[in-house]
Amino acid sequence: MKTPIRRQNPLALQPNHHPDDATLVSYAAGGLATALSITVACHLAICPRCRQRVSEADALGGHLLSHLPQQSLSAEHRQAMLDALDKPAADEPAAGHRASTAIASKETSAEADDLLPAPLQHLLGERFSDLKWSTLGPGMKQVKMHVGNSNLRLFKIAPGTCMPLHSHGGSELTLVLRGSYSDEIGRFCPGDVADLDPEVEHQPIADRDQDCICLIATDAPLRFRGIVPRLLQPFFGL
Amino acid sequence: MTLAASDESGSDNLQQHWLHCMAAVAGQRDKASFMQIYDYFAPRLNSYLHGLGASPALAEELVQESLLSLWRKAHQFNPDKAALSTWLFRIARNLFIDAMRRQPNWLLSELDMEEEIDPHSPSGDSHADGLKVQQAIQQLPMMQAQVVYKSYFEAKSHSEIAEELQIPLGSVKSSLRLAFQKLRVFLGQAEGNPPHGYPDTSSKGEPS
Predict the structure, then answer these.
(1) Which residue, among A138, A166, A176, has the nearest Cα to A233 in the 3D structure?
(2) Could you say which residues form the signal peptide (chain B) (predicted)?
């Protein structure tokens, strides 16, 4: 069922801004909301530094697992396990699908540049050029995605557009996919992640050379009902 | 709050033991070796999955699925990249996420796959020092231990933990960050020592 995933050229991007270690650990622990998890996955695909940290966080998970107290299973479980070993695997994906996901080396660089990050292709299709944007305001367009109960959207900001000053009530991750923007913290280029603490206020301005396309993930407001809800409105209160 | 049971001075021996078992499973399809892994890990996986909120029936099902996956993919296990416990942790976590969120497993397993096809991928935790990790965990301040516990054993988000512990979101993040920075020294390569000459934008030095 799984369609082959085409990959961006990983060498084209060298991120300078990374997710917080706390975010990477929660990714490994399985605690991130789905939208945030997808955003981290897009960054990891091109960032060996963060892949290393996630594998260390996985190792911590393995360590904790092997030190957990035991919780015994039902009496039949052991025999059922033994019986299962002899059964042939039911519709296991063929080993071949892994090979097909390697970078398609024959792609021209223009075609490769048009490819969305692999984890987004499942949600949005393969290419930037096929995205259906809706206009949000002067110089701003978006594509919204529904993933579980968290919010994920693509933002496209026209060159030089200045966003409203804002802070982040809940957890919010921004990954630059194309173009760049600058704010009080620095310049964010493709592959960079802004993982801001909630108290940080900032005012991003898209750089002047081209549209800036960002992936923005927020925790679902509904999960925090009753806890300072006004702070938890996603970017632009949408 | 105890994150884990007492010290295991024999943890290195145990790691060696799992390597022998996995070699026998992969090479000879040895059921006795497999069942040794089962007897050790199944009750712990069960405990883990219960903690995450799986019903008893689902937990048992996912324990079996996890270990069946180990049996079927034993030839893919690479001890240079990850300890057996890490491998099992990833399998069980991914199966749980699949089951609970009804999300396809591409989110996390995609990455694992990439590690397999990437000849330069980091070598993971093969050199993790179990005893030192355990000591470091036991020395974590209460708040940091709680945040680690809720992240790994309850799969809670930062916001959920902030709500439960009645602390600001920023404190959850800083506690988790500090705990990880203390522990990661013992979880594989230390800071500034990237494996296999992989470019690391955070470190200037050449890998040794």
Answers:
(1) A166
(2) none
In a domain, A112, yes or no: yes
Domain of residue B165, residue span: 130-186
* DSSP secondary structure letters along A55-77: HHHHHHHHHHHHTSPP-PPPTTH
Total domains in chain B come to 2
CA atoms within 13 A on the CB side of A127: 8
Please indicate if any CB of chain A lies within 8 Å of the CB of B9.
Answer: no
* pLDDT value at residue B187: 82
What is the per-residue pLDDT for A21?
A: 96
Residue B89 CA to residue B86 CA, distance in Å, equals: 5
Q: Provide the pLDDT for residue A9.
A: 53
Which pLDDT belongs to residue B5? 41
The ipTM of this complex is: 0.80
Please write the tens of the pLDDT for every residue from B58-86.
999 999 999 999 999 999 998 888 899 99
Single out the residue in B66, B90, B115 at which a domain terminates: B115
Considering the domain architecture, whether residues B162 and B92 belong to the same structural domain is answered as no
